[in-house]
Every structure is written in structure tokens, then in C-alpha cells.
Amino acid sequence: MVLAMTTETQPGGQLGAVARGAAVALSGLHKRYGDVRAVAGVDLLISPGEVVALLGPNGAGKSTTVDMMLGLTRPDAGQALVFGQKPQDAVRGGTVGAMLQSGALLADATVAETVGLVAALYQPRAGAAASGRRRPLPVSEALTRAGVADLARRRCSKLSGGEKQRVRFAVALVCDPDLLVLDEPTVGMDVVGRRQFWQAMHDYTDTGRTVLFATHYLDEAEEYADRVVLMRSGRIVADGSVAQVRAAASGRTLRAAVPGATREMLTALPGVTGADLRAERAVLTCADSDAAVRALLAAHPNAHDIEITTAGLEDAFLALTGDREESP
Fold this sequence. Notes:
Blueprint: H1 17-20, E1 24-33, E2 36-46, E3 51-55, H2 62-69, E4 77-82, H3 87-92, E5 96-99, H4 111-120, H5 128-131, H6 139-146, H7 161-173, E6 179-183, H8 191-205, E7 210-214, H9 218-224, E8 227-232, E9 235-240, H10 242-250, E10 252-257, H11 263-267, E11 272-278, E12 281-286, H12 289-299, E13 304-310, H13 313-321
Parallel strand pairs: 3-7, 3-8, 5-6, 6-7
Antiparallel strand pairs: 1-2, 1-4, 8-9, 10-12, 10-13, 11-12
Helix pairs in contact: 4-6, 6-7, 10-13
């Protein structure tokens, strides 16, 4: 079930004018590796300024989709644009910065030298203004934004796993990108490191920049994303706000004390798809919780301690990405 798909395409899969104004526009992306179908027709628009979490189990196609978005992998079919540019041009010009798990750091270089080497790739050259190349951030500013200024003189071989992730963040930031793509950004960080990282991300997104991040920490997606995109078996199976994805996956749960009720009475209420009753405490699974609570109070006016909740994002994730038969 896909909650929101707004990609405008022209015949032949070419992206239309609306998509060309998007931060990210993917249309009909397909990718196979031999008999393995990694991505099977992904259409996605991300507007400038959105913070989007890309979720899915291992093998869902997230990394392959990100690789095609960054121009690291050529799609078998379909098209990708980043701010109206081909991905390679957007990366070359500094429009997009990426923090990838597989990004290697030079073991013998210091943190400042590593970030400085990347910054040098974006230094304006003759004809740079015409090509749209931007001026990178000062290395000291990128280090400060990423929270690693105190590690500037440390060699990368001496960094912990969490410190390496924060240095990769500085490397992604130094080109001062409009779009930041993060692949499992807080892997290896402790609780304090994760909190500091997301505070830095808040500061970055407050400037109106666009962020796409893939994570296995669902609490991060729930707390920091404006929008959640769930992938399974190479396809997008849900796309919407956290609340929309929760509701689509499992509806809502109504809990109440209902003296004198039976399970059969509660199951028969409009909007109720399942009921459990223990010691007059009812737990109702609802497709329409508004209809259910109105009917409950009409039939049982002495019902009290009523509470309506949605499932957590983890429950929605499991429901929408669990094992199901897929057509080839």
C-alpha cells in the first residue's frame, strides 16, 4: 500500500516539469544483478526542505536506490534527477553530499587533512562559475558542525567507530550541499554521540536543506523525519508521515473499561475489527476508531477510562515489510 505518490512523468518515463523542481525525482527505476531484482520500479519525489527516512529490511533495495540517486550505479531502466540535474553533475558540483557506511577514511591522514582533501575537490577553478560549482565550507566550520573539531589532529586510524561516522558527516558537509544523503548515519555511536549528531542535523535542516537518511533505528525515523518511505523487495510499499504509515499498517487501538459487555457485543460494534475482553477491560482493534467510540458510548454509556492509540512505527514497519508473496 502506497500512501502518497506524486511523480509526474511524460511518455517514456521522462520526468516532467514538476519533478524537475524537486530535490530528488526518481521515475521508474529498475535494477537487477543477475537473477536478483534489487529495485523494481521506484517512483519518488522529495521536495526541497523535506527530511525523509528511507526504511526497509535488509535486501529491500534501499542501498541500490541510493546508489542510483547518487550516480554510483546506472539503472537498467528509469531516470533519476537531483535538483533537476543528472546525479553525477549534482555530486560534482557540490549540490549533494553523501555519508555512506562504506566510505573509507585514509588511515594515516588526520581528520582535518581528510576533510581538507575533500574540500579541495570543490575549490572554484577557471570556468567554475559557469559550471555552477560552489565554494566549500572552511574545513574548521565543517569540523565544528559535525562535532569533531576536537579531533582535527587525530589520525583516522585512531578513531572509534562512532568518531569515524562523525568524520564522514564532516566530509559530507564540507561541500555545503543542498541535499544530504545519509546511510545508517549513527551506527557505532553511543547514546551521547547519537544525540549530538541529531542536534547537528537539526541545525543543518533549520537552514531549509533537504535530507534523506536510511536507518535501522526506527526511533530516529519517528522522531526526526517529516516523512517515511518504506521499501520491500525493491518496491515502495508505504510513503507518508509517521502518523499515516502507522494508521495504514494497523489502524488504531481503543482501550476502555466496559462493565457488562461481552466480547461478542464489542466485536459487533461499527469500525471494530477485533476485540479482547478481560475483567471488563476491553481492547478493540479498529479500522475506524471514531465510529467505534461513538457506537461504544451509545451502547454502553457507562464505559469509562477510554484511550485511543496508534501502533508504533516498529509495528507498522513489521506489518508492511513482513514476508508476503511477491510477483516476479
